[in-house]
């Protein structure tokens, strides 16, 4: 396999005039970039250095220095700007740097300064073949040097390139520090291998400071100016972007792929993102595996998972539930002589589903076990408290206790009662054993200076645990009401049926979200014929909604009278909606009567026939499987899809009465539906709804997959095309 230096040379030969790298006041084409990096590599070789530290902010000079080390075969040691002074001193001493790039020194390339150093007496020998030493802050705060080979980094970059080949990532903006391995590999190497343009800006220009400081208005302004196709985000940044789009401060239209990782992502955040048209996809990895192991992507996405493993690695779950990875292992930790296992123990716990998607629960060493014997990953609840309940920081504890507790840092403008209500609302979405029974609001944030956070903002759990009594003494504490399931004390957790329905139809639901038409809409590749084709199919199933409700109501037994009553309300709400669709078609110039008297495509024909059959010959509650699919899909897709199509096709509002009304209307419907489903207790009724929902997801998804789309990509520029 060709390695990164050769692959980059190939790109420069193919596209010498294409824009490759931009920064404030700088624009480098592929040919120019390779020439400059090659010249800098020759300078470094002439200096006789073997290990070079790479310092500084996100700049063109940083990228040039990194590429020069690759071309010269010199071990590069990125120095994270968020490291403390003591951590930086440890890094430099242990790694034995004989030079620094990016500090004050002698100019040796465009914007690149070099400073000679004498290797420290503490320096450790590198494993043979080390190309990069990336330092992780670690949970103890003492950085560890992870030694990576050129072959390993190439394998990861190529696997990511192949996974994202068809997404059209022509312009990537680096918003994480370049010294972060994920941004270094996935944010620089991968876009260059795809022939795209990498944009770098000083982090303060993006509103970022330190390890976790964020000025959202500055970031939004930078994104509006840059209009990148892709970003790599941590959950906190992803949450900020989703909120900005929801509030109308940031358009979602330019984004084609947003990767989020580094910590657990709350499923609700991903749902909110897709609801407003943000293509946010979760991934998973670690430095020892060259930063990425698994990734969701537009064509291969599973909600609740971190994606399918990349092609160059194998993943398995051992007997203790630990995630193990083989196929792209690191060379070892700098200074360590411990032998490496063929299957790397990641220290994370998780599972692989039937289709091979990886699900991560949390760190094995952090797992809590309640006095009822329930295993809980605190990271799961903490991510929900931060991303779902709006807390600034959260630390969950309660090992051996009957119920969990949490240290919380909440926004200053929220009262204790508002915090209590937010946690109580979150509790209602969690299983009994994972609910917070007591909250402790801290007067100020946990900080790295006190040893409670690593340099990059992660909790130092052992330190917080040892100081827990002191921290509780400074907090304002309050009880949170918990509604218990009767079976909890028996060691069993009974999930509400709506949550069970969501969980058991998750795999089927992904078929809808993977429809090429949805990606085409985001890329401006749906024309008028595709939109009217969709409306035509919608007409032919919506016209059966009320008749199906009537058929269901007529067949319900007396024990389900409350369901019949709900159907009466549904019928009043849904009657005549098919005429809205015909009016939309008329506004698009389509003959309404021709559609009225026509026939649907096969998936919709089969979907409607299946539902009538299940109501008549099976269990009439199967009807509600269709409601799960259509109203849930409408909430997530209708409004953002309608806005994107209207913008692309320049159609009047009169052509979108169906999509716009149902995006809003179905929000209320779905809450009504959730409450109704939680009253369904008969197992046969529940199973009929689950099986029906799976079938309707399949057939409705087939219809979405059949929508005709325009091949190729939108010609809209990013502002960084080659001149």
Description of the structure:
The protein is α/β, with parallel strands linked by helices. Helices cover 43% and strands 17% of the residues. The strands form eight sheets. A five-stranded mixed beta sheet has the order 13-14-15-16-17. A four-stranded mixed beta sheet has the order 2-1-10-9. Strands 4-3-5-6 form a four-stranded mixed beta sheet. The relative contact order is 0.07.
Write the layout of secondary structure elements.
Layout: H1 4-14, E1 19-23, E2 26-29, H2 30-47, E3 51-54, H3 60-72, E4 75-78, H4 85-95, E5 99-109, E6 112-116, E7 130-136, E8 144-149, H5 150-163, E9 171-173, H6 181-193, E10 197-199, E11 208-209, E12 213-214, H7 216-226, E13 230-233, H8 235-246, E14 257-260, H9 267-275, E15 280-284, E16 294-295, E17 308-309, E18 314-317, E19 322-326, E20 332-333, E21 344-352, E22 358-363, E23 368-369, E24 375-376, H10 378-387, E25 393-397, E26 404-409, H11 416-427, E27 436-441, H12 461-466, H13 468-474, E28 476-479, H14 497-504, H15 506-513, H16 516-522, H17 528-542, H18 545-555, H19 561-574, H20 577-587, H21 592-596, H22 602-617, H23 623-649, H24 657-677, H25 683-705
Parallel strand pairs: 1-10, 3-4, 3-5, 9-10, 13-14, 14-15, 26-27
Antiparallel strand pairs: 1-2, 5-6, 7-8, 8-20, 11-12, 15-16, 16-17, 18-19, 19-21, 21-22, 23-24, 25-26, 27-28
Helix pairs in contact: 1-2, 2-3, 5-6, 9-23, 15-25, 17-20, 17-22, 18-19, 18-22, 22-25, 23-24, 23-25
